[in-house]
Amino acid sequence: MADHTAQSIVISADPDVIMAVIADFDHYPDWVSAAREARIIETRPDGRAAKVQFELDAGVLKDTYVLEYDWAEDGLSVGWDLVSSDLQQQQRGRYTLVAQAPGSTKVAYELMVDLRVPVIGQLKRRAEKAIISSALHELKKRVEG
Q1: Which end of the chain is less enclosed by CB atoms within 10 A, N or C?
Q2: pTM
Q3: pLDDT tens track for 24-33
């Protein structure tokens, strides 16, 4: 993924447990602070979400957008691309899970977002870092309980 921001965190759980939380879009508003709604609008033949509509409220940033998901067959990564948005012109992201030891997984998150309004590159990267950091910590808290 060109020109993106990435971070990782270690979560005390096996990859399948973490991926189950990532895939449980109906419950995103329970643990993702900026998510007001997440609704699966299209599923794949295997039952996983193909397209999901999100309603985001992050204070000054509010957006309704649709992401299309690409789930790896091995269950260790999922990527997404923006389909439509009120505020964004592009979003591409990926979670990649790597088992460390039994009950421990390194979760890497890559993200690239372009807004419809021009934003200085340095501010854009800072915002991406904040989004990723928050997402990883909220995911860790949700999985580890």
Answers
A1: C
A2: 0.90
A3: 999 999 999 9
